[in-house]
């Protein structure tokens, strides 16, 4: 685990804790490091939600599959980011979503009980980790509301415009790279892939964007039902 200490310094769970102290805490928390191939399930839908996950390498997608087999991407976590913490802290008996490796990944899993209950070693940083976990859950809730702002739009065009607006603001630039392939973006937005491709092509023909793979450049004003991105970047 020593190989990941520098990365873990940037993880929200260990915010404000020194690298040397993180190493001691991992032992106290019983952390495990596991490897997964692309597409492998890390945390299964329907299983008890017990673990707080940290991405060490690669990426993890949080996915929900409905009764008819339609897949929806809820969120994506990259290196040093958390996943599964909200459901683990809620203590749900059956997780409503699954976590799967979006690409070959290494993840660290920590039993949530080890975080929420004081350890016998009287670890001086245990309280800090607990506070960090609560903050991370609050920030994840804000991110979820941001997604709702996008997916609650009525049309594919509106959803795409809202998503690109959020990404421009997040990167503070009119040029950015999204973390999703076209199919994954369609699953994230809850739209048909062919319809999404049509709207991207329309924006290109209108001179509003340029795209290359996952890279987007906003060239003009994306305006849809009152949503606006200035050509020079986000406000």
**Which percent band covers the strand fraction?**
15-25%
Helix content: 25-40%
Q: What does the main sheet amount to?
A: 4 strands, antiparallel
Helical/strand content category: alpha+beta
- The number of distinct helices, counting runs of at least 4 residues, comes to 8
Q: Can you tell me the residue ranges where pLDDT is under 50 for at least 5 consecutive residues?
A: 224-235
End-to-end span in angstroms? 42 Å
| Main β-sheet, spatial strand arrangement | 1-8-3-6
Query: What general form does the structure show?
Result: elongated
| Average pLDDT | 88
Order of helices and strands: HHEEEEEEHEEHHHEHHEE
Using the CA coordinates, give the radius of gyration: 19 Å
| Number of DSSP E strands | 11
Give structural notes.
- With 235 residues, this protein is α+β, with helices and mostly antiparallel strands.
- Helix content is 38%, strand content 22%.
- The chain has helices spanning 5-8, 19-29, 85-90, 112-116, 126-151, 156-171, 182-189, 193-205, and strands spanning 32-36, 41-43, 51-57, 60-65, 71-77, 82-83, 98-101, 105-111, 175-177, 209-212, 215-218.
- The strands form 3 sheets. The protein has a 4-stranded antiparallel beta sheet. It has a 4-stranded antiparallel beta sheet with strand order 2-7-4-5.
- Helix 5 (126-151) runs antiparallel to helix 6.
- The longest helix has 26 residues, at 126-151.
- The radius of gyration is 19 Å and the shape is elongated.
- The model is unreliable at 224-235 (pLDDT under 50).
